[in-house]
Amino acid sequence: MEQQIYKGKLTQFHWLKIAKKAELTKNTFSLEFEIPENLQENFKFEAGQFVSVKFQAHGKDVINDYSMTSAPYEKKICLGIKVNSSEGATAQLFKNYNEGDEILVSEPNGRFTMVSKPSEFRTIVAFAAGIGITPILSHFKNILHNEPRTRLFLFFGNKNSEELIYRDMLDNLARKCGERLQIFYFFSQEKTADQFFYGRLDDRKLNLIINQILHLDDTDEESTIWDAVDEVLICGKGEMIKTLANACYHHGIPKKNIHFELFEEYNDDIYPLEKEFPLIENVEVEFRMLGKEYHTELPDNKEKILQQLLVQNFQVPYSCKSGICGSCECILEEGEVELLENEYLTEKEEAHGHILACMSIAKTKKIKLNFDLI
């Protein structure tokens, strides 16, 4: 039995049985789902993706997104989940659902993904904080399995060693693939023997990492390891992502090679606005959403379209407001906009008129949008 559920977009959910449940730390746990033979195709996924889980909490239906720690070659769906509050919905998921129970799980989604390049020599650096390790773990397992020439560096921040999730799994990967994987743990609220590993992962720490860890390159005496970095993965809270993404960019990594995933709503831009636009006042906006037509007027184009529609109390779908999650994806049917940043849409989708309302500035007096994507 399956259900189509609206969560910004119509999403396909299926009933899956919980095969394994394990408490990892005092505030994190894992779930593994049994995928029946008839749903194997539906639950194929790429490293870095997530699923949505629909469950009951305090008598209400809740839909939360959780990243997978499993890699595609493992052919199973494993989630790492953090309980932020003893009264929150996720605490109810941990308390009320056990092995053998069935629960609604969406088909895999998300674009915190990379193209696999098994024949190339690549260097990939990842930064994770707390539960942000989950999609990074999926990526690293997948890369180590499929890309024999790729080397990986992980910089993993936590408050203290007690909250360090998946340490055994990470250490085992490092022992098994020591020549290709190096892992460095940082603690913000626990003193370390080496002061270098004390503190948050931020721009200052990145400078130290580049100069003291990613400096000498045994494969090329003319350059540093940082010079050879092909891709950067960042997963954590918004401020961490913003700080590290900008620091990586200013240290020479192109924006298109910096990939990030948010674990909470974030309302700020990741990169600073670098363009100025002619002022347009009284912008007429028509849009279609859930089969209904709406019409409104924005005072001007000083702010992005989504943010202005939300101020007017329209229930437009969104999650991050930072161009990452894709919840506010829509089709521009009339008018022009400037898409400031885009970590979600493909070139083909942009060519077909798809935009992200949270990252779009109106450039014409009238625009027409379709959030139903049809």
Automatic annotation (TrEMBL):
Gene3D superfamilies registered for this protein in UniProt: 3.10.20.30, Nucleotide-binding domain of ferredoxin-NADP reductase (FNR) module, Translation factors
GO MF entry, a single one: flavin adenine dinucleotide binding
Domain FAD-binding FR-type residue range list: 11-115
Required cofactor(s): FAD
Annotated Pfam families: FAD_binding_6 (PF00970), Fer2 (PF00111), NAD_binding_1 (PF00175)
Keywords: 2Fe-2S, FAD, Flavoprotein, Iron, Iron-sulfur, Metal-binding, Oxidoreductase
2Fe-2S ferredoxin-type domain ranges (all copies): 283-374
Protein name: Ring-1,2-phenylacetyl-CoA epoxidase subunit PaaE
Species this protein is from: Chryseobacterium daecheongense
